[in-house]
Amino acid sequence: MDRATFACSTAFFRDFGNSSPGPLPGGHVDFIDKADSFTYSDFFRDYLIPNHPCIFSAKFTEDWSSRKNWVTWDGKPNFEHLLQEFGEAVVPVANCDVKEYNSNPKEQLPFKEFVEYWREYIRNGYRSSRGCLYLKDWHLSRAFPEQDVYTTPVYFSSDWLNEYWDAVAVDDFRFVYMGPKGSWTPFHADVFRSYSWSANVCGRKKWLLYPAGQEEFLKDCHGNLPFDVTAPDLRDKRIYPRYSQSQPPLEIIQEAGEIVFVPSGWHHQVYNLEDTISINHNWVNGCNVAVMWCFLQDELAAVQREISQWKDPMDDWHLQCQLIMKSCTGIDYKEFYNFLKVIAENRISILEKGLDEESSSQNNSKAAISTLGMLHAVFDLKRTVKVLSSLSANEDFRKLDLNSLSPSPEALLQHLESAIDTALL
């Protein structure tokens, strides 16, 4: 991060607090063509801060081994190579033809069985008695860490979600999707209202994107979001009374090799127009961590409303609310504190000690932080202070047993503020 971008971002978040969806004149989505003339600061200033989508050309992925080895000469999935590498893996597969709780039901299948199904589906003219199956949310990088199938573009390297979950060695938010022509993902926003990036290894996708806040006009009379945003029912004012107030979605056709950047909190629906393989990350950083915190507060409030009748007779009602929220979202307030702590401590370590040679030679979070520069580390700490201050003052957080947190929130805040002051001397 250069000084001009640091000054711009600091001023923006001082004045506005969170990244803003902002208007997109004419529904235009920028296409970034040349990798050698587009810098991280360009992306940070023009897309992360204003929370705008963009498309990166296939030039940004042309060196990936997956684009060379997973794809045949005519741009189709290379089933033979994929079976050779991953045939014995067990993968999550959704049925796109079945609706279950506003999503598609999933099952675990051997990868070789899914590929056998896919080949037969193609031979039968994209029809099967089993329905349209879609391999989704496969943690391939975690299952096969030795496979060097892609490199995360530098623009997406400030990735707090995967930095934290790698540190605790529990989960990650790096996924592979593989599906036949006609497979699709219903209307949704990404986990924690995070950013996402999605790269087509092969195939084509159609995206329908709605800026953050537009989803409020798409809710039915009971407050539920639609399963399929293109369904005719949405035009029925008795069911969807505010649909007429919504803006038309931004439509993107994503070609092979291209990367789509999906802004924080944007709801979307995605179709595979051809047999398609994609690599996807969900990620949070200093620009949208406050959005994540707002989302968690909204989720807890929803849980509290659902079980409000048990508040008086239940001694540990507040703890139970946290447990339910974690089962639904994957995180509770105490883990969110630990998330902020890990992010902060990594940056304090870089600012106070620099980057040792061993870390700089590895593809890890500290190397990524150092690559982005010391000013980026300071920006991250300033954003962490903002959200941590709000968390520490939160009534529901203060009702929890915080004695297990080390250091205490107050001590961590003091350390962060001291590190920022020292770095800016």
TrEMBL record:
GO terms for biological process: positive regulation of translational termination. InterPro entries: Cupin_8, JmjC_dom, JMJD6_ArgDemeth/LysHydrox. Keywords: Iron, Metal-binding, Oxidoreductase. Its cofactor is Fe(2+). GO terms for cellular component: cytoplasm; nucleus. Residues 141-300 form the JmjC domain. Pfam families: Cupin_8. GO terms for molecular function: 2-oxoglutarate-dependent dioxygenase activity; catalytic activity, acting on a protein; metal ion binding; sequence-specific DNA binding. It catalyses: L-lysyl-[protein] + 2-oxoglutarate + O2 = 4-hydroxy-L-lysyl-[protein] + succinate + CO2. SUPFAM superfamilies: Clavaminate synthase-like (SSF51197). Belongs to the JMJD6 family. This is 2-oxoglutarate and iron-dependent oxygenase JMJD4.
